[in-house]
Task: inverse folding
C-alpha cells in the first residue's frame, strides 16, 4: 500500500453562491473542488436529482474510489452486481475498478455529495456533459475522453434489471 500525500498550501473554501452549476432539471451538478485545487487529494461535486432522475449510467474509475453521501432524499446505487438503496445520511464508497451507477429512487428526489479520491480533473467532464445536453457535442465525443477523465462506460445486467428494461449504457448522463 502506498501513501499519497496531496500538495496544497491553503484551505479550500467554496461558497455555495460562487460554485459553478451545470445542468438543470432534472439533474443539476454543482462543481465544488477539482483535483487541481486540492493538490490531487480529491474532486467533489454536489448532484441534485429530480424525482426518479438518472444520475449516471454504469461506469467505473480505474484509479479512484468514489464516495456518495446522501444529503437528502433516496438514491439507488449500483456497486458491482448489487443495487442498494441509500437514504438521507447514508454513505456508500465504491472502490477503484468496481462498476457503479446512481439514480434517484422512483418517486423520490436525491441530493448527493460525491467525492472522487485521489482526485481527477473532472470539472471539464461535467461541462462536456452540458455541451452534450445542449447539442453542442456528440455522445461519441465523450467516449473519446474516457481515459482523460478515468470514466469508463460499461453494461450492467443488475442495473438493467433494476429499471425493468435494458438501459442506454452510452455516455450522456452525469457522473
Result:
Amino acid at each position: 500500500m502506498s501513501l499519497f500525500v496531496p500538495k496544497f498550501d491553503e484551505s479550500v473554501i467554496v461558497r455555495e453562491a460562487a460554485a459553478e452549476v451545470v445542468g438543470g432539471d432534472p439533474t443539476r451538478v454543482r462543481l465544488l473542488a477539482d483535483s487541481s485545487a486540492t493538490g490531487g487529494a480529491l474532486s467533489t461535486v454536489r448532484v441534485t436529482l429530480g424525482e426518479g432522475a438518472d444520475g449516471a449510467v454504469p461506469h467505473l474509475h480505474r484509479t479512484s474510489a468514489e464516495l456518495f453521501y446522501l444529503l437528502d432524499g433516496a438514491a439507488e446505487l449500483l456497486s458491482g452486481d448489487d443495487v442498494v438503496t441509500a437514504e438521507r445520511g447514508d454513505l456508500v464508497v465504491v472502490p477503484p475498478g468496481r462498476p457503479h451507477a446512481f439514480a434517484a429512487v422512483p418517486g423520490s428526489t436525491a441530493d448527493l455529495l460525491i467525492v472522487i479520491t485521489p482526485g481527477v480533473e473532472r470539472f471539464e467532464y461535467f461541462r462536456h456533459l452540458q455541451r452534450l445536453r445542449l447539442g453542442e457535442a456528440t455522445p461519441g465525443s465523450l467516449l473519446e475522453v474516457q481515459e482523460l477523465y478515468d470514466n469508463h462506460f460499461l453494461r450492467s445486467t443488475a442495473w438493467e434489471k433494476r429499471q425493468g428494461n435494458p438501459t442506454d449504457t452510452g455516455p450522456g448522463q452525469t457522473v
